[in-house]
Amino acid sequence: MGLLSSLLRHSPVAVAAAAALWMPPSTAATFANLYTVTVTPDAAAADQRVAAEQAAMARLLIRITGSRNAPLEPALQPLIASPRPFLSSYGDDRQGRALVGFSRGQVERTLTELGQPVWGAERPLTLLWIAVDDGVGGRALLGAGEVAEFGTPATPQMTELLRVVREDIVAAADERGLPIAWPLLDLQDRDAVTFIDVSGGFEDRIVAASVRYRADAVLIGEVRPGTFGNEVEWLFVHGVERQALPIAGVRDGIDVAADRYAADLATVGGASVALLSVHNVLTPADYGRVVSYLERQSVLERVDVESFGNGTLQLRVAARGDARVLERVLALGGVLRPAAQSSSSGGMVFEVVPDGGSP
Fold first, then answer.
1. Which of 265, 280, 310 is the last residue of a domain?
2. pLDDT value for 1
3. Domain final residue, candidates 243, 265, 287
């Protein structure tokens, strides 16, 4: 039985609340098509489909476990060698690449049985501020749309450099299953942040300008040509945490962010029962947002309503991971946040974030 059906049986105001359920989704960053992987078939392989399926499984395991070393894990080698039992679809895109879909349920059950971590589709959103210096006077910021140019117009070499950097970052984020966003670089951004701010790592100005995007973290990078290819000076800003990579590759910043998130959010082991109290459920709109949000969380395998009244919703859930992981995951979407008050039942306590408010 779904959570909505359960709520309708428990609350006299639930019928009114149901009308409020059909609202725009929250700002939670969910990686779309997490279990569908795109790979380029190996032309030298004796069986290109088998090779593509194996390569796709190896990449999927990196996404789902959160570990770059997942394909080297002995316990996971059988999944890579024989991925077909886990397949849900196989096709080709217009570029001739293989699109390999996997069954979420089968993969997650197997990883749990093997004692491997599972990282769900609800993931932090990372905002990228990237300054590109071509080494001969050309400077630009990468944004969501057109490139904002600084100084002389972009040369063909600079245009190609920008294309390569953007494609490398997007490819790395896709491999790790990491939702990313780019600044609009509109008048508001240009008034707040300059090329020098990004290239110089003036994080205070950048973080202040990033608030409008409601991202969970900011990744700042300056790209310039190096002796052995493009080099990047990265700074990862996540709450009060700062992690710098003075000389790194283009994809290294993405890997640092993904590694950090996975350490916080990936779960190990089966589901355990936890008690949740959600306060400040004061209106039908609040009620609908909480219901809709909890039903979408992959970390929750079962949700049962214990009671609802006086603005407090009491739930018993079967959740993967310990209480710290659950708290971090549920706080990602901008719908719930940990509450200061404790629960008399010893469970976890959240409160509803005002619609349009800050998480």
1. 265
2. 34
3. 265
